[in-house]
UniProtKB/TrEMBL annotation:
<dbReference type="GO" id="GO:0003676">
    <property type="term" value="F:nucleic acid binding"/>
</dbReference>
<feature type="region of interest" description="Disordered">
    <location>
        <begin position="300"/>
        <end position="328"/>
    </location>
</feature>
<feature type="domain" description="Exonuclease">
    <location>
        <begin position="2"/>
        <end position="187"/>
    </location>
</feature>
<keyword id="KW-0540">Nuclease</keyword>
<dbReference type="InterPro" id="IPR012337">
    <property type="entry name" value="RNaseH-like_sf"/>
</dbReference>
<dbReference type="GO" id="GO:0000175">
    <property type="term" value="F:3'-5'-RNA exonuclease activity"/>
</dbReference>
<dbReference type="InterPro" id="IPR013520">
    <property type="entry name" value="Ribonucl_H"/>
</dbReference>
<dbReference type="InterPro" id="IPR036397">
    <property type="entry name" value="RNaseH_sf"/>
</dbReference>
<dbReference type="Pfam" id="PF00929">
    <property type="entry name" value="RNase_T"/>
</dbReference>
<protein>
    <submittedName>
        <fullName>Exonuclease domain-containing protein</fullName>
    </submittedName>
</protein>
<dbReference type="InterPro" id="IPR051274">
    <property type="entry name" value="3-5_Exoribonuclease"/>
</dbReference>
<dbReference type="InterPro" id="IPR047201">
    <property type="entry name" value="ERI-1_3'hExo-like"/>
</dbReference>
<keyword id="KW-0269">Exonuclease</keyword>
<keyword id="KW-0378">Hydrolase</keyword>
Length: 328
């Protein structure tokens, strides 16, 4: 298995979101990647500037951060289709795993591929390593996401390159990746949501040491999501038994549902369904199941009570400090 550490820089409409091209909020202007072998040793690099075809004026913030200018992109940049053909050839046919800092790069890469009608050869589901997430699990509190430059400083990596350029950020991400305990944290793969399941048979079911994840096909409206049996069922992480719900699914805001179920042998399990909007304005659900701690149970009980009060018009009392602990 090889690792392709990918980083992208992109431009956007200088006039803001209302002037953006549908389904292409960000146009890629630079691709940088570093290839690592199974020992996390560098084996190659890829770099291309991209000549913009959609947003032909650089947003001032993009220019400020990357120090790129439109003249340089026009003179040295390749067309996106040509750059992607070269990049995919460089990736090769040997099995590899994409690695990125954060969750946006692969989604934006595929959006640009779709816009320019470049055939998408990536598997479904597209699994990858979010190095920012893994770094947070190993060196942080498990939830606070640090920036790449913060991680580089904390790990005392020699800062021999600038930040906020694609190849340089890919290089630094690779250096951080090489310092992670992949035997322990490499089991925590992320899944890209750009290409969703097209049918019930293609729905994603992923299993990890401490949680499971289920990604549904798209629905035309949010109300249908929690009517789907596969989203509503809760299964024990340890034995696979269908569980009885101690607290049935309840909405917590407009985009989140919570529940609490119990296994006779393995204790309480917390269910969470996040409702997300798809690329083409449909809705899909991402369900995660985790073993529930006492703090988790307190939190769910408090949230259910808060929702009941809101529906009845009563004042919501802030939870006691003991129930504000962050879940693991």
């Amino acid at each position: 298995m090889k690792y392709i550490v990918l980083d992208l820089e992109w431009n956007q409409s200088p006039k803001g979101k209302e002037d953006s091209v549908p389904h292409l909020p960000f146009e890629i202007i630079e691709i940088g990647a570093v290839m690592l072998n199974e020992h996390m040793e560098p084996e190659g690099k890829f770099h291309r500037l991209i000549r913009p075809q959609v947003y032909r004026q650089l947003h001032f913030k993009i220019s400020e951060v990357t120090h790129l200018n439109m003249d340089e992109l026009k003179k040295r940049g390749s067309l996106f289709c040509d750059a992607m053909e070269e990049f995919l050839e460089w990736c090769g046919e040997e099995e590899f795993r994409f690695c990125t800092w954060g969750s946006m790069d692969l989604t934006e890469l595929q959006r640009n591929m779709a816009h320019y009608r470049v055939e998408n050869p990536f598997p479904r589901p597209l699994l990858y390593y979010d190095v920012q997430k893994l770094y947070c699990l190993q060196y942080g509190d498990g939830s606070t996401k640090e920036s790449l430059d913060q991680a580089v400083q904390e790990q005392e990596v020699q800062e021999e390159r600038p930040f906020h350029r694609a190849l340089d950020d890919a290089y630094y991400t690779g250096r951080i990746l090489s310092r992670l305990d992949m035997e322990r944290y490499g089991v925590y793969l992320s899944v890209d949501y750009y290409r969703l399941p097209r049918s019930k048979e293609e729905e994603f079911r992923l299993y990890f040491p401490n949680y499971s994840k289920y990604v549904s096909r798209p629905f035309d409206n949010k109300e249908d999501i929690m009517k789907d049996k596969d989203l509503a069922d809760v299964v024990c992480l340890r034995c696979g038994r269908m569980l009885r719900k101690k607290i049935r699914w309840f909405p917590c805001g407009q985009k989140l549902y919570l529940c609490l179920a119990v296994c006779p042998d393995h204790g309480y399990m917390r269910g969470k369904v996040r409702v997300k909007r798809s690329e083409y304005d449909q809705y899909y659900g991402v369900k995660t199941i985790k073993a529930a701690s006492e703090a988790d149970m307190e939190q769910i009980l408090q949230k259910r009570e808060d929702m009941r009060k809101r529906r009845s018009g009563k004042k919501v009392t802030p939870p006691a400090s003991g129930s504000q602990r962050r879940s693991p």
